[in-house]
Amino acid sequence: MESINSTLLTEFILTGIPYPLRLRTFLFVFFLLIYTLTQLGNLLILITVWVDVQLHAHPMYIFLGVLSIIDMAISTIIVPRFMMSFTAVLTPISFGGCVTQLYFYHFLGSTQCFLYTLMAYDRYLAICRPLHYPVLMNAKLSTLLVAGAWVAGSIHGALQAILTFRLPYCGPNRVEYFFCDIPAVLKLACADTTVNKLVTLVDIGVVVASCFSLILLSYIRIIQAILRIQTADGRRRAFSTCGAHVTVVTVYYVPCAFVYLRPETNSPLGGAAALFPTAITPFVNPIIYTLRNQEVKLALKRMIGGCRT
User: Fold this and answer.
1) Chain-centre distance of CA 307, in angstroms?
2) Domain map of the chain by residue range?
3) Which CATH architecture has domain 2-13+21-308?
4) Alpha-carbon distance 175 to 74, whole Å?
5) What's this model's pTM, rounded to 2 decimal places?
6) Mean pLDDT, 10 residues at a time, over the chain (309 residues)?
């Protein structure tokens, strides 16, 4: 044990994902632009939801504001470090930094899963039970549900971080990935990782499968209700209110399932898929919600008009 402890790692090197060297500068600038627009877009959504009083009456936009916070945070803990892999020298990440990155990624990622489920349930109540909606989904309840999502996400992230870093890491220290994630880090452990892999598969599988099943069930009921609407304009408006959420859920869940619910997760294709929940989804969420959501567009116009006045 003493010989193992004497060689425990104090830092890791994130190698990033394979790319042609001639594209190094382009990729650095591209992801810098993606990161900047992600922060600005989500900040704009957050300010709009915060400032516009008319949106406060709709719990859906409370969820949307929280989603913007999560998108900004996930992008911040992943993308700047990822951009460093496009520089000439690979800068190490400390052991504590790796633990922190893994914890916050799974904390925020699982919270986002729960939040998407709450947003689907909110749309189900608004469309399928419109008369009871103000009672069943009020501001107090939506706040409690969001708080519950944060707590559950924190527990999930802590469980994954503790299980991963309770193992000894004594070399090598090159993580063949663009951030400290469970499958890539476990490959460097100097101990048996069978239990960790099983718990990770079951834990993440349960979270993803249960959230996705609840979302799917909600939208089955929503579609059934929409098809019963007599007018074409009514059906169009109902589908429009749900279209943005369906789009972002698809963009988020499909890559996550591809990354974590396969036997071999640390591959170039898996790394490319992991870019969606970490960099692409946070970037496209504000675009989707502003282009597909009429109330958000009107709120933006009111806010811009007020600023001009």
Assistant:
1) 31
2) 2-13+21-308
3) Up-down Bundle (1.20)
4) 20
5) 0.87
6) 55 88 92 95 88 77 90 95 87 92 94 92 87 85 93 94 91 88 89 86 82 88 80 68 74 75 57 82 84 70 66
